[in-house]
Structures are given as structure tokens and as C-alpha cells.
Fold this protein.
Amino acid sequence: MSREEIFSKVQDIFRDIFDEDDLVIEDTTSSDDLEDWDSLNHINLVSAIEKEFKIRFALGELQSLKDVGAMIDLMVKKLS
Amino acid sequence: MPSRLSYPYHDRLLSKKKSIKKELLSQENFIEKNIAVLGGSTTSEIINILDLYLLKNGIKASFYESEYNKYYEDALFENPELEAFKPDVIYIHTTQVNLIHTPHTANTLEEIEQLFEKELQRYTSIWKGLEKYNCALIQNNFDLPPERSMGNLDFYDPHGKVNFIHRLNQAFAHEAYARKNLYINDINYLSSSVGLDTWFNKNYWYGYKYAVSYDAIPMLSHNLSNIINAIYGKTKKCLVLDLDNTCWGGVIGDDGLDNIQIGSETAIAEAFSAFQQYAKDLKDRGITLAVCSKNDFANAKEGFTHPDSILKFEDFTSFKANWDPKFQNMIEIAKEINIGIDSLVFVDDNPVERDIVSSQVPHVSVPDVGDDITEYIAHLDKGGYFEPIALLEDDTQRNKYYEDNKKRLDEEAQYTTYDDFLLSLDMQAEIKPFSPVYLDRITQLTNKTNQFNLTTKRYTFAEIENMASSDAYITLYGKLSDKFGDNGLISIIIGEIKEQTCHIDLWLMSCRVLKRGMEEAMLDALVHACQTSNIKTIIGYYYKTNKNSMVEDLFAKFGFSLQTQNGEDSIWELSIKSYQQKQKNIRVNDE
């Protein structure tokens, strides 16, 4: 799966979780940019991504990531 | 109805919940309830999903959520916020991570005994602390820990945590069986059902303090909603079955009696027998059975004469085998049994028939059972449609009442006047103030009676108990028996006394004794009780719901005069000075 495909699927997941059909995310998007991106929705995002891509993030793996781009990079690594 | 909310649990439920909620909120006729969740771990998502399941069943909930892991403090100490919230239900979400006094290999047996008592007492004191809220308590039992350091010995040596948890769960069962207001959310079963490795996810525990994994939350919340549904009388009452390839393998009209698959001769026959046995078990605990099949009536009936058939023709209270559209038969079945159409659950192997019924009569529950007989039971069982809150003698008797009623209808035809018929029934009633032995049944009837119910107010056991012992209320229950059998406790009146006036807070009756004079007898008894308490006036209230139109004229019929009309609701007044006793065909309290 290419980075673009992953990115597009992740965007769909963001749209579902935040219930905004036209939400657009970018590599630089972080929890500071989305008002609804609180700790609860963060868990929902992680859970949905783990399900959709059938991957698992190790404990603490996500804590050091600064934005969506860094998360996608990590996913690319896991999926390759 | 969003199908994602039916068993099996849908993966996307968690991410799509906002749009699902919008869809659910477009329904009408919600009842509103306040639900407090006291958690020993994170509960946010459990509440979000519970909200959806409750909305699906017509309950709009407001939630109170304790601070993280503050369940014990919230229960035992002054809590103005929770008091102001006025909870109808309190759910205590504790799991194995919350166990404090667990045994250690160095402990003596006496010490383990003390630990056990201490741990159990934590919970009994929580329940006691919450008694002041007079509401239903739902308590998790315990799931097993993900590891067992003592291996299999963990189960049978008293030092084992597994052993300790099994003992605690036994004690919880014992407590809940003895207490009227405590319901157990059996997470021990739920976690077994999905497997502990799915139930508990360490990442989510260490990372977010969820003691139940995201994968298991829909199941947990659904199970909780089943208990709450049952508390508020929303449990389904009737299982409607298709016949060919649902009750037996094959097509009776084509294959003939000798060739349908039922019994233990083949694997398929065994699976159909297991399904019939499950339906029979439901019947034996008070769920009514009906048939809805496209079949020739004689053929359909013959199917149940098969020597290996567990179900017999007589097990069905309503039997529709004809060529009419099934949704029409559904309406007929509900009418015949005298229950709401939303009390029916329909099982059919044919997806087209399922679709016609669920689209034409959307209030009927139609689980998507597929066409594999081995899956049918799971859909019914895990769907939780028939969740009971207690096994009452009245439930196990209910099907007999319906059968007795059939005999009464046959007899009715032989008498020239209705009064003659009523007299011939040799009816005896017992109408008395609430007494402790009947409070369970009174609570149950209060929460499930929809049609003959003037105010449709719902009360918990504790509220009923309070009114029964208060001087500010007149309470009456009515039992009725006749020559065909005992109908049990079937009518309730609660009147609130204010300044020599009795306000009828609740008046309801089971429809199985409609038009037998019992409604008159109850009013006679209320007037009599008022007279002895020096009350001059009775005020009646009719609150319209979508189910109780059968009693909208009741007060007018009984000589009350209309005081206020407020939309479809109305308030009525009766001066009891010149009241004449209304019924004459029932002997009351063996006079």
C-alpha cells in the first residue's frame, strides 16, 4: 500500500471519528489543530486505525509522534 | 433501525457512532432516564455505546460519570452532584483490575478468609451506601485475570487469584439473588464468550486505563442495555417462528412428515432439535410462542406431530399458517395475544420474508439470523431480546393464562348475556393494600403494562416499597381467579392523598382480564378505602401514550367529570359521596 493510499484511508477514518465529511488533514496536522482531538477521540482514532489496517501500535509508540505525517510514516514502516 | 446495533457486533460501530446517534434520535416516544456510571477504570466509550443501544430501545439517557476510579468514594461519601442528578440507575463498572485484597502465597488460610471478607465488604458497603438513591443498581461481577501465575492450581488452591475471583462471584450471585434492587452485569460470562485475550488489551489498559478492550465494549454496553431494558419492561414477550427450515429442516408440504429433518438421526436434524429445545426453554419461562408460516394449515400442524418434534402444536398461542403476507400475520398475532407489535421477535431463514416484515412492521424485531440453523440460537440469545430481571411464578404461569383464556372464549359463546357468562365464571378477587410478598410482581407489572395504564408511570422496586409503607398513599393490588384457573396478580392502583383528596397516580391492569368486571372492582375498592380515610374526592389522570388509547374513556365511563383537557391528556374528578358500587359478578376478599 502506498503512502498516498494509507493517507487517504486515514483521512476517511478522521472524517468518521470527527463526523465531518469534508475534513481535510495534512502531514502537519496535530491535535492542536483539531478542537475535537482530545484524549478520548485519540483512542478512537488509534483503535479505528489498528482495525482498518490490521496493525498494532506498541505501548508508547504513538506518544513521541508530533503530527499526522509522523504517524503515517510509522504506519508505512509497519505495513511494508 | 441501524443494523450495526444488532448482534453480531459491528466493527464500525465505534467510529460511526455520531451518525448512528442522529438517526436514532429521529425516532419518537422516548422515555427519559438518568444513569450514573461509577467506574473503576475508564468508562467514556462504554457510555457512548450504551447511549446508542438504549436509544435504539426508546430510552433517552442522561449520564453522570464518576471521576476516574472514584466509584468507591462516589458511593460512600456525601455527593451533592450525584444527589442532584437523581439517578434512576447506577452502574458500578468494576473489574478484576480493581481487586485490592487479593491473596498471596505467604498468606495463611485464615488470612485469605479475612481478605475475602474485606473485599466482599467493599462491595456490600457500596451497595448499602447507594441505597439512599432508591434506584436500581447494576454491578459487574469479575472477569478472570489475563494471567495465572500458579497455572491450573490457581483455580483450586485458595491462594490462587482465579479461585478467589470465583468465590467472589459466587458471593455476588448470592447477594444479588437476595437483594431486590441489585442486578449483576455478568462480565465473567461476556469475557468467556469473546475470550480473555480479546476482552483485556494491555495496551489500552496501560495506555488509556480501559479495563475492557475496545473490541469488547459494544458487547459489554449491549449487555448492560439489556438489563436496563428489562428493568423498564422493554423485554420482548413473544417469539414468532417460521416453520420450513426454521423449526425443522426441509419443506413439510413437499417432503412430507417422514422426511423433514428433526430428531437425532442426522447432524442437521440435531441442530434443528436444539433450536426447538431453546424455543421450548423460552416458553417454559414465560415467553409466548407463535407460528407465522407460508404453508397449508393442515400440513403445518402435522409437522409438530413428528415423534421427535420437541415443540407441539399446543405450545403455540397463535398459529398462522396461510398464504397471506407475513407482516399482516404479525399484526394478527399481536392482536390475538393482546400484546404490542413491538413485543414480537421474528425468526425466519428466508431473507426476503425477514425484509418484508422488518420494512412493513418496523417495530417487530427481526434478527438477521442468516440461513444456517447453527447460528439461530446465538442471534436470539446474544440479541438479549428476552432478558428477564427475575423469574417470577407469574411468568412461568403466563402461557397457561392464555390457554385458559381460550377456554373462556369458547364458553362465552354459549351464554345469552355477557352478565350470565361472567356470573358463570365464578370469579373471586383479592383486592388489598400492597404486601411484601407481592412487591416483585407489582414492580414488574408497573414496568411492563402499556395498554390498560392510565398514567404509564414506571417505578423501581424501592419506590414501590416506599409507597407501600407510606401513609400518604393508598395502594391496592388485585388478584383474580375463576373456574378455569388463577389469573394471578393483574391490577394495581396507587393513590396519593393530599388534603382529603386522592390523586390516582397509577392505575393499570393486565389485558388478559379485560372486561371481566375487575376494572370496576378495583375502583369500588379504591372508593371504599377513600371512604374509610375520610376522603371526599378522587382525581384521575389520563396521560396519552401511543399504546393506552383503550382507556382514554375510562374515567368518563365510570362517572368522573372532566376537569382539564390538556392536549390529549386529561384530568378527571369524582365526588364519592353518592358513589354506587359498580361490579356485581366477582366475589371480593371472600365476602
Summary: The longest helix of chain B spans residues 109-130.
